[in-house]
Amino acid sequence: xxxxxxxxxxxxxxxxxxxxxxxxxxxxxxxxxxxxxxxxxxxxxxxxxxxxxxxxxxxxxxxxxxxxxxxxxxxxxxxxxxxxxxxxxxxxxxxxxxxxxxxxxxxxxxxxxxxxxxxxxxxxxxxxxxxxxxxxxxxxxxxxxxxxxxxxxxxxxxxxxxxxxxxxxxxxxxxxxxxxxxxxxxxxxxxxxxxxxxxxxxxxxxxxxxxxxxxxxxxxxxxxxxxxxxxxxxxxxxxxxxxxxxxxxxxxxxxxxxxxxxxxxxxxxxxxxxxxxxxxxxxxxxxxxxxxxxxxxxxxxxx
Length: 303
What we know:
Blueprint: H1 5-14, H2 21-39, E1 50-54, H3 55-58, E2 69-82, H4 90-95, H5 106-118, E3 132-134, E4 144-154, E5 163-169, E6 175-178, H6 180-193, H7 197-214, H8 223-231, H9 235-238, H10 243-257, H11 286-299
Parallel strand pairs: 2-4
Antiparallel strand pairs: 1-2, 3-4, 4-5, 5-6
Helix pairs in contact: 7-8, 7-11, 10-11
């Protein structure tokens, strides 16, 4: 299936609109729900937990009011340290208790957060590996993924700058390091530099990926992957010409980056500018990007 130029223009124009007031209010309700759950839970008194939205809703790149809101609850009094942007090695994990003598282990914190959330919503699902899932309330707030996490400090050594993120200890015994604050700040700056074209292009590519999945053209990809791809498009490409021209240029640039002959996928980064886009542990590979970009190019009838 290919869109006509008129259909393509209408589809792209849809994603230039900022989130509606109703969408912003739904996000605020979800954030207030989690904040209230944490503040009214006696075992969390005086812990100074940080509750913040992250992901596509916080970054204004969500493509549907029905998509989940991601909210992190960060335990800031216990800090984990590692030399890698992706996580801690065996020895770093083994030494981590030395800097904290309190009772709050990752397991204890996850369990208690589940109790706090169930006090405000009896439908909380705690079976997921990473986050607690709180179902939506129609007409009020969207479904919400609540992530328990700890402060993570990257100390790379050799006079390289440190960076502060968060680490999530999953139920299967692994851990995931996130850099949501850096993602948020860098995304806002790129959006300003490109006259708001950056977030338009992210929403457009996410919407197109949704279409292609529904058409059976490609397999589902995490929405964050589309944000990562567009972040690697140079600012002048995104600000060039009309919206249609800019998005065509963005796809053309990315397709070149994934060319077998002259592409350089090793140079691509995540919006946090700390992690490379392709490294071990990621949920995607260069082949996924090639398939997506080629299918999007054909679907939009470019070239």
